[in-house]
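hiii, so i know i said id send this last week but things got crazy w the move. better late than never?? heres the sequnce for the chain we talked about at the cafe, plus the structure i predicted for it. fair warning i was half asleep when i ran it
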Amino acid sequence: MNHPVASALIPVVLLIAVGFLAGKRQWIGSGSVKDLSSLVFMVLAPALLFRTMATQQNPQVDFKALTIYFGVALVVYFGVIAALGFSRRSAVLALAATFSNTVMIGVPLVGLAYGEAGLFILFTLISLHALVLLTVATIVLEFAVAREQAVQGQPVTRAAMAATVLGAVRNAVIHPVPLPIIAGLLFAQTGLQIPDVIDRPLQLLGNSFGPLALVMVGVTMAANPAGAQLRGAFMVALAKNVAHPALMAAAGWVLGLRGVPLAVMVIAASLPIGANVFLFSQRYQVAQQVVTASVALSTGLGLVSVSLVMLLLG
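okay and structure toks below
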């Protein structure tokens, strides 16, 4: 099993399978899932993100790759809305078709396949991922809500809408994912090194992130079967797992993106749906069942689609 794709994906599949079994057997109860997820996002992820960015020597951000990625994501987002018609439901489903699970699945996968070079590219993407996509989604959803309320004779003030959008931008920046990335990049610019007494605990915490995050993905899959929403969930998962990376690969190739930057961007686009989409469906009280089913189905299909993407990338 020395093939790089197999070496990267087999541990991912096995760890997700362990989590799925633990969830089915109730070894990890439903009450523990939230606490473990908080541990992953609030402690382990910041340690890994900060240390990786802080130890980069002369970091060079690939703005071309980022521009292409978000350009494609926005094309897919507004394309889905245009196909389904402008509404809260279409805005949430469009977010599901574009918002990737870049942290829990993307980080361990890219780290195994491409090492520090791939992680640096992915982390620069992650630092803007939520800020760009969730802010756009919030603006679109607020306009959709305002439109519905106007139809019902309940107009929304511009001040209230602006406050919601500004709150979304603030929450996207002051967040346990982009904040340590930005802090790590700033620290790297100083030329200093992290003292060993601090670096060692950060390294241990960061090394724990990948295995626990993937086990939690499996536990979540076991707790959220696709069920009656299978048809709608399949269409959303198809858009996320197939259409999004296909467009990303085509746009990147045409615009001259090559090597590890192209591979990381295409893999990021092919990743399953991120959990933040479910939070949006809850917040705006729309498409909750189909989004839950889509996240589960997309994660399951991702084991095949991401494998295929990595094989095609070579």
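btw Residues 102-151 form the longest helix (50 residues). thought thatd interest u
miss u guys!!
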